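Lab notebook, bench 4. Continuing the backlog of folding jobs that were queued last week. Each job is logged with the same field layout so the records can be merged later without manual cleanup. Today's entry covers long-chain-fatty-acid--CoA ligase, a 622-residue chain. Filled in by technician R.K.

JOB TYPE: sequence-to-structure
TARGET: long-chain-fatty-acid--CoA ligase
LENGTH: 622
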Amino acid sequence: MTNANSKRESHFKVNCLVRLLLLLLLSSCFNLARQWDALFLMRVIRYGARLEIYRRTSRVVTVVDRFVQQAQRIPEKAFLIYEGVTYTYGELEERSNRVARVFGDAVKEGDTVALLMSNEPDFLSVWFGFCKLGCAVAFLNTNIRSRSLLHCFRCCGAELLVVGADLLETLEDILPSLQEDGITVWCMTQESPRPGVHSLLDQMEEASQEPVAAERRSVRCLRSPTLYIFTSGTTGLPKAAVITHLQALKAAGGFWVYGATGSDVIYTPLPLYHSAASLVGIGGTIELGATCVLKKKFSASQFWHDCRKHNVTIFQYIGELCRYLCNQPTKDHRVLMGVGNGLRQDVWREFHRRFGDIRMCEIYGSTEGNLCFMNHIGKIGAVGRSNFFYKLIFKYDLVKYDLVREEPVRDHSGFCQHVQKGETGLLLSKICSQSPFFGYAGSKQLTEKKILRDVFVTGDAYFNTGDLMAEDEDDFICFRDRVGDTFRWKGENVATTEVTEILGLVDFIQEASVYGVQVPGNEGRAGMAAVIVRPECTFDGKKLFSHVLRELPSYARPLFIRLQESLEMTSTFKQQKFALVESGFDPCSISQPLFFLDCSEKSYVPLTSSVYDSIVSGQRNV
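JOB STATUS: finished
OUTPUT FIELD FOLLOWS
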């Protein structure tokens, strides 16, 4: 580094420190509500200053760079515990080096590779190995199938796929298409499982564990892509959200901002293909130099046993997970904190009642979004806490929203209208240099659909979260509902357009309208479809059951079917679902025939009053 550059960097660091001290001084003047506010704000600013240094100096320390640093600093420390086996930082570093050595000549910097694997240590080995070669990695949802899976490859431009041994059969239908598209498939096996599929484990055993040149993974721009994480939305097929190094680094600071340290043990039962587990969980573990207990799949009955066995202090959750845990016997544990999202107030209180005063830290933010809220205080029912300084950094607004027209309310000048304190509104986040929106791979149209323009002044642009929120007098922010054609069920986003297209392939269905309905005692909304049967056909519950079982992941399968003679449309010929959502699935208040997905009967069976009562009372699981 030249002397001039060194002086500039030192000068910038001093400026950052001065700004930090000034902000902390001002914060005391404004008398922020609690000491937690000041501490939390200090940590946010400190972490943000580091990212600003990366941006100004073009010397980015990525999540994988940080992992390499930790492997050099604490090589013998437990990094990952999986199914009773401990993997140290040094061991995972060497194993990822072997992956990099295997593919060193097969890929080049800037290539995209796809990863279809369940939770296991080699998910990280492959992920880090390709990052060390300067590649972006696309995490594929292990639940998606057939044409949706094929679509994922095409939109992110991946030319190489690594698949877990337990998931190879999910490629059965599309393997010929992948090979026709020139996509090379590697499987985590010792021998080639079938023609055209390469084995990787044997190649890794023969490869050197020495690191490849650090220059291959060097990053100069925070905004360059490092991952593609697929999310369902209103467009039907999964969308590849572009995850830049900036977003990955922000997520990795979550645990640290909440006050976690390297001595913590973090329990991650969520799927690694989602940003919560990979970016917040694994990235956060690396940032701290802590230990992660990785679970292949969440098990309510094993949760507290695992926590006691491994001295877990922090766990990751979604709201549905905590609801399942509330049905488990109380156990002794050392858990101090839970970090996640979607925790309902009644479940929150019951969780505290049964398992003690665990600090539940909600995080709000979509995979592709440019805004994050964090409930560092732990106020029940809030997804975050804002304040004067937070609003200076993050430009967000709540605007009036018309649920019937499914669009923001605009005034006579064409601009959106702010809601009052405590009033529910659509959450929008301003797109600017401080909060960029990177969109989706494969189509500019998909990205543009998430942007609202001319919101408050001509020419401005805001990211449309699609979420209805409210902010109270104490600046606590609470989630109210989702809008549009996406709803959440079992912790997953369900795109109604995709489900509608799948239902339309059934020969007796003329038209379908898919939406979500609330089921008492359950998080999110369960899938329901209003269906018009072709005049010459009759409804066949067994055929429809077999079709959705084959074509849709479990969380996307409609639990309820409502037969209709017609579907209400808006003036712009969009399906009008407001009245359908409001009427729910009660057979006593709906005159049309209703059906329920019954796995024991392997059919959609008539939804009678007794079946309805068993669902509402919780006697029948959904």
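OBSERVATION: The domain at 90-244 is CATH 3.40.50.980 (Rossmann fold).
SIGNED: R.K.
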